[in-house]
Design goal:
Helix 1 crosses helix 2 and helix 6 packs antiparallel against helix 12. The strands form five sheets. The protein has a nine-stranded mixed beta sheet, sandwiched between helices. A six-stranded parallel beta sheet has the order 4-3-2-5-8-9, with helices on both faces. Strands 6-7 form a two-stranded antiparallel ribbon. The chain is built from 13 helices and 21 strands. The longest helix has 26 residues. Helix content is 33%, strand content 21%.
C-alpha cells in the first residue's frame, strides 16, 4: 500500500556561472567523454550555466582530429536526450577541438600549450583551465608531472595576484590501497595545490545523494530522531545486475571492495552519519565527513563477507560465472560481492550497526540507503486473545539513489474494519513524478562546481586516505586467506549465504529490495 507526496513551489538558489574557461579532457577517446562528460556540459549550456566564452579540448593518442567533434555531437544527441536540430547544439560543437599526443611525450605538451593559447585568443577564455584526467590511473602521474614541467599547472601571477585559475579533476580509482593512494597524493600535490585538485566520485552528482544533506539539515522533524536512541540499524546497498562487461583485466585488479565500497559507499555512509557542518562551505562539510570515517574502529575480518558469482539467470537469460568471463583467471579470487558490518564510535551512533553490501550480478540494479527505526517499547494494539500486533513493523526510511531516485517512509496504519488489523503503508516521493524526468547524468553538478572552484562534493586527500585506512587491512586479510568455495553465489541472486548469516547473528536481515 502506498501514497504519493507532491512537491510545492521550489526555492531557487541564485544561478552561478563560471568564468570563461577551457575544459581539457585527457583520455577523451574513451567512452566516458562521449556518454557522460560532453552530454553533461551541453546540459549546462542548455540551462545557461556555462560561460559565453568557453571551449572543450579532447586529448588522446589516436588521430581523431576530423571525427572527434562530430562523434561528440552524436554522443550528446544519443546520450543526452537532445534533438539534433536544437539551436544551441551546433555552436556548442563548434567550440570542441581535439589534440592527439602521447601522455608521456614532452613535445605533445608544448604543442598543447600553444593550442590552448590560440583558443584563449579565439574564444576569450582568459587562460582559465580545467584539466580532466579521464585516463587509466597509470597515466595520472605522468600527465600531472608534464603539466607542471611545461608551465600549465599554475595560474599566472602579476603583482602578487593570480590572473587566471587552473584546476584538475582526477577520476577514480585514486590508488589501489593506502600506500599507493598516499604516493599518488604526494605526486599530484608536488604540482597542484590541494585547492586545485578535485577528486571526483560521480555518485555525489546524483540528486538523491545531495538531497541526503537537505533531508537531514533542511527539515526540522528528522534530525531529532537521527541517532542511536531511535535508529536500530542502517543498511547501504549498491547492487548491479550486470557483470563486468568485458573489463576483465581491470576488475581482476579491483574487485567490489576497491571499485565500489572504498569510494561510492563510504561517501554515502559519511552523508548519512555526519554531524551538521558549521556551514555548507567545502572545508566544513569535508571535515565532518572525515570525522565519521576516523570514528569507525578497525573492521575485523569476521565482520566481512566476500563472494564471487557463478553461472545463473539474470532477467530471464542465462549468464556465465565470473571465472568464465573474458580475460579472467579461471581460479580467480577476485570478489564480485563484498559485505561489511561496522560501527561508528561516537556519541550519535554508538551501538548502531551499519551493514554495507555491494556486488555484481545481483537480483537487480539498485542503490539504496535504509534507515530502520526501533520498534515502539510496548505493543498496545491487541485483541482479547492477545493477537493483532503482528502487523506492527519497524518504521523504515529508504533513500533510493538509483535507478528511480526518491525517498520512501514506511509506517503502520489501521486497516478499515471492525478489528484492529495493522498494515504497513508507504509514503513515496519520486523525483521523476515530483519534478519531471531529467536527462541529466550527475556529472553536470560536479563539472559546474569544479569550474566554480566549489569542492564540497569532491574528495580531499585526508578523506581518501581515511577510507583506504579502513579498507586496506581487509584486502590484506583476504589476500592471506583464499576461499576454496568460490564461486559462492549464483548470478541473479542476492549474494552468498554468509552475508545473510552475518545479519542473522545480530537478529536482523537484509531489507528486500
Amino acid at each position: 500500500m502506498s501514497t504519493n507526496i507532491s512537491s510545492t513551489a521550489a526555492v531557487q538558489q541564485p544561478e552561478r556561472t563560471p568564468d570563461p574557461c577551457i575544459v581539457v579532457i585527457f583520455g577523451a577517446s574513451g567512452d566516458l567523454t562521449k556518454r557522460k562528460l560532453l552530454p553533461a556540459l551541453y546540459h549546462l549550456e542548455q540551462s545557461g550555466l556555462l560561460p559565453k566564452d568557453f571551449a572543450v579540448v579532447g586529448v588522446a593518442r589516436r588521430p581523431l582530429e576530423k571525427s572527434f567533434a562530430p562523434d561528440m555531437k552524436e554522443g550528446i544527441i544519443s546520450g543526452g536526450g537532445v534533438e539534433k536540430d536544437e539551436a544551441k547544439l551546433d555552436p556548442f560543437v563548434g567550440r570542441i577541438q581535439y589534440h592527439a599526443m602521447n601522455f608521456d611525450d614532452a613535445a605533445g605538451y608544448d604543442a598543447l600549450k600553444k593550442v590552448l593559447a590560440d583558443i584563449d585568443k579565439k574564444f576569450g577564455t582568459k587562460g582559465n583551465r580545467l584539466f580532466y584526467l579521464a585516463t587509466a590511473p597509470e597515466y595520472f602521474s605522468d600527465i600531472v608531472k608534464y603539466l607542471g614541467d611545461h608551465g600549465m599547472a599554475k595560474p599566472e601571477v602579476k603583482d602578487g595576484e593570480a590572473k587566471n585559475w587552473v584546476r584538475t579533476i582526477v577520476e577514480k580509482p585514486f590508488g589501489h590501497d593506502l600506500e599507493s593512494a598516499k604516493a599518488l597524493n604526494n605526486e599530484v600535490n608536488k604540482v597542484f595545490s590541494e585547492d586545485q585538485i578535485f577528486r571526483i566520485d560521480h555518485y555525489l552528482g546524483k540528486e538523491t545523494v545531495q538531497n541526503i544533506l537537505v533531508f537531514r539539515f533542511g527539515n526540522g522533524i528528522f534530525e531529532n530522531v537521527w541517532n542511536r536512541n531511535y535508529i536500530d540499524h542502517v543498511e547501504i546497498t549498491a547492487a548491479e545486475s550486470i557483470g563486468i562487461e568485458g573489463r576483465g583485466p581491470f576488475y581482476e585488479t579491483a574487485g567490489a571492495l576497491r571499485d565500489v565500497v572504498q569510494n561510492h559507499v563510504m561517501e554515502l555512509l559519511s552523508f548519512v552519519a555526519m554531524e551538521p557542518p558549521v556551514s555548507f562551505e567545502a572545508s566544513a562539510v569535508r571535515a565532518e565527513k572525515v570525522k565519521v570515517w576516523k570514528a569507525i574502529p578497525p573492521i575485523h575480518p569476521a565482520d566481512t563477507v566476500r563472494g564471487q558469482y557463478g553461472p545463473g539467470t539474470v532477467d530471464g537469460k542465462a549468464v556465465v560465472g565470473y571465472r568464465q568471463e573474458e580475460r579472467v583467471h579461471p581460479r580467480s579470487q577476485t570478489e564480485t560481492y563484498a559485505a561489511l558490518r561496522l560501527e561508528i564510535d561516537n556519541w550519535r551512533w554508538a551501538g548502531v550497526p551499519f551493514y554495507i553490501r555491494a556486488g555484481k550480478r545481483l537480483g537487480k540494479r539498485v542503490t539504496e540507503i535504509t534507515i530502520q527505526f526501533k520498534l515502539p517499547p510496548q505493543m498496545l494494539f491487541k485483541d482479547a486473545q492477545g493477537k493483532g500486533a503482528e502487523g506492527i513493523q519497524p518504521n523504515v526510511l529508504s533513500m533510493r539513489i538509483q535507478p528511480d531516485e526518491g525517498i520512501t517512509l514506511q509506517f503502520g496504519a489501521k486497516v478499515p474494519g471492525p478489528t484492529m488489523t495493522i498494515s504497513k503503508v508507504d509514503m513515496d516521493f519520486s523525483y521523476a513524478e515530483a519534478f519531471g524526468k531529467s536527462s541529466a547524468n550527475g556529472y553536470e553538478r560536479l563539472l559546474l562546481d569544479a569550474m566554480l572552484g566549489d569542492a564540497t562534493l569532491f574528495a580531499h586527500r585526508d578523506g581518501v586516505e581515511a577510507t583506504w585506512s579502513l579498507i586496506t587491512p581487509i584486502l590484506e586479510a583476504w589476500a592471506k586467506d583464499p576461499i576454496n568455495s568460490l564461486p559462492n553465489y549464483a548470478a541473479g541472486t542476492w549474494g552468498p549465504a554468509t552475508a545473510d548469516a552475518m545479519l542473522k547473528t545480530d537478529g536482523r536481515k537484509w531489507r528486500k529490495l
